[in-house]
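Retro notes - structure team

What went well: the batch runner handled both jobs without manual restarts.
What didn't: labels got mixed up in the shared folder, which is why I'm recording both outputs here explicitly, each with its sequence directly above its tokens.

Job 1
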Amino acid sequence: MNETVVEHQRAENKMGVMPIPKLLLSMSLPIIISMLVQALYNNVDSIFVSRIDEYNKAFTAVSLAFPIQNLMIAVGAGTGVGINALLSRNLGEKNFEGANRVANTGIYLAIFSFLAFFLFGIFGVKTYAQFQSNDPEIVAYCAEYLRVICLFSVGIFMQITMERLLQATGRAFLSMVVQLAGAIFNLIFDPILIFGWFGFPKMGITGAAFATVGGQIVSMILGLAINIKINREISIRPFRYCPNWKTVGAIYAIAIPSILLMSIGTVMTMCMNKILQESTAAVAVFGVYFKLQSFFIMPVSGLNNGMVPIIAYNYGAKNKKRIKETVYLSCIFACTIMLFGMIIFHAFPKTLLELFNASDDMIVMGIPALRIISLHYLFAGVCIIFLSVFQAVGSSIYSLFVSMGRQLVVLVPSAWILEHYFGHSAVWWSFPLAEILSLVLSVFFMRHIYRQKIMNL
């Protein structure tokens, strides 16, 4: 028992006492590295898929499957936000029994999420693929890929949960190890299963799907083992801590706005694919952008994952100074990453497109598209950080308002209007237009949150 108390004291010293710059980097850097590796294997996966056929139909199919994969991540990561914030808050308040209950309830929620997508994998993937495309070959590719992703989605939901438990207790390095294990598995087996190397059968797009879910399952197993053996702040005993409505409700009070927030991206992507449907090249360019943006969005997400437990812990401990310093430094780091991304998109658009075996039509359309879309990175860094602050202090509803305003009220309608009157080449301007609104709303709500919840701590 004394050993457990010492461990909890060490966690408190780190989250509540360590200098913020060092703490933020120690919490975020391992996650950022793992996110970059994640982005690398997502793009390598697509680069290999783009070489399955000469007309890029397999790549287009994977791009059309992305909204469902994004929805899985939204459900898993959104629930993880609730688990992370509530667990960190309980630790900050020294409610260790409550922290255990949150951790074990999170495992049950991951399993329930998997079962929902398992059913979709059986009954829904073909209908979804037909909704997204009229090309029979693309529909077949999309359904084939998604079926595997959904039927074996237990890996991604449990992996995310295990990572969040490690992050909430200050073990960001181990969280990175968990994610790296799956990423490395995927990088190795992607070309092997797609092209049938080393005696394996040539599986094409199905091989890409199996490499993806295989990596997720490897991370799930490793994450579970680390949490059971090493993570002493919590006790993984799901049969002892059966879920109850109070704990589930407390998690989802934070998680549902986060899930909806991330799911809005799924709706937006589906709508954009429908708007661009008449041009296969435009759909492919949009898919290339979404793959490439992960090199910059995912590191900022990694920064957020390190930032949220710091803010949540110090909010529970009523330490205003540390909250303000964390937000300030996070904004600087996020804006630096996004500015670098904008420079890359402006300087090397043709090279980036050629990585995905782009056709001449894709290159002609894609060069200005990547440059125009990336203009919104000027504002995106601050917006992303502010949205995570809202979640950390239990006001996720404001994140939802901002994201809905950006993606559904401005981006999709303006994209439709621009495409209808000016053609596909004008659609891309909807991204910077939407981000300006997002910045205005984010600053407004941040001022409100500060006055209401932080200023008087």
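Job 2
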Amino acid sequence: MVDYSLARRATIASVRRGLTPSADVCDAHPELMRAARNIGEERDAPCPICSHRSMRWVRYVFGDELKSNSGRVVYPLTWLRELVDRYDQFTCYVVECCIDCGWNHLLRAYAAGRRYRSPAPAAGLRHRV
């Protein structure tokens, strides 16, 4: 998994110091805004730019094996589990987006699919999910 939280923090700090105009980071693509507004996963956190509580997470999947599903938004979340069961390997991207001001940032990217599933725990052992 690649976590982009440090890049996110640096971008937010740059805006707050006045080094980066908010218009440069509040530029979500119309398709991302539509996905965030209609099917994005609501987050109980304020937007780091406008402070409104209108943050959403949108998940996208990409991979050659996915064919026509590559580049699609994952909705509902149970579809991601179906993709993991069906395909060996693909990449999932999680993007946060504010539906008020258009702030958007890639949060994380991770490999998914049958190849990356955790093996079942040994009998009698418990594990955290």
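One thing worth noting from job 2: The chain has one domain: 2-116.
We'll revisit the folder naming next retro.
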